[in-house]
Design a protein that fits this description.
Chain lengths: 109, 114
């Protein structure tokens, strides 16, 4: 089955700086790569996704890049704000989706 | 439109007791999932369903049973709770199975087994 590894497990950034989270996957058949944000006490919520026929996708301050050859994809958050503090999960979708272990992002004011 | 709801929100069980977690969705999704979330381990799939009356095992199915008698509901049962089942449980639903379709998650149920 699919194996997704996510790094780092924790990330602390100064407000206004950028944050980068990286994931690798094992199943070359995966073609959908969503990123979810989980705020304290809530369920995960999709923030951006990318499909295998696209190398990069951007939505305001959030961008995702995909390298299918190397089997890795990354989440980039620019101009971080306090409300970006949360746990972020990557996933690589084959059947029900395999999730990374999560990255706890803390934005320092 | 409530999305995905879960009941109860919190529960404490003694070892050996049984309980059922209820998940309901009002988006007419065919696919529903149960995950458990443990510190440092992300979300692990317990069971899932591809439609009313169907269920399938996920990554960590042992000790759990599920039923999908109605399209909008997906029940997760623990027949004899163990401390290792202390976790936060999330239900999710999607329009299609994996491969390009967003999963919508409920708010979670925090279960403690003593």
């Amino acid at each position: 089955g699919e194996n997704v590894e996510q790094h780092p497990s924790t990330l602390s950034v100064q407000e206004g700086d950028s944050a980068v989270i990286k994931c690798t996957y094992s199943d070359s058949a995966s073609n959908y790569f969503p990123w979810y944000k989980q705020e304290l006490g809530k369920g995960p919520q999709l923030i951006i996704d990318i499909r295998s026929n696209v190398g990069e996708k951007k939505d305001q301050r959030i961008a995702v890049t995909l390298n299918k050859t190397a089997k890795h994809f990354s989440l980039h958050i620019t101009e971080t704000q306090p409300e970006d503090s949360a746990v972020y999960f990557c996933a690589a979708s084959t059947t029900a989706g395999s999730f990374g272990a999560g990255t706890t992002v803390t934005v320092r004011a | 439109n409530a999305g995905v709801t879960q009941t109860p929100k919190f529960r404490v069980l003694k070892t050996g007791q049984s309980m059922t977690l209820l998940c309901a969705q009002d988006m007419n999704h065919e696919y529903m999932y149960w995950y458990r979330q443990d510190p440092g381990m992300g979300l692990r799939l317990i069971h899932y369903s591809v439609g009313e009356g169907t269920t399938a095992k996920g990554e960590v199915p042992d000790g759990y049973n599920v039923s999908r008698l109605k399209k909008q509901n997906f029940l997760l049962g623990l027949e004899s709770a163990a401390p290792s089942q202390t976790s936060v449980y999330f239900c999710a639903s999607s329009y299609e199975l994996g491969q390009g379709y967003e999963q919508y998650f409920g708010p979670g149920t925090r279960l403690t087994v003593t």
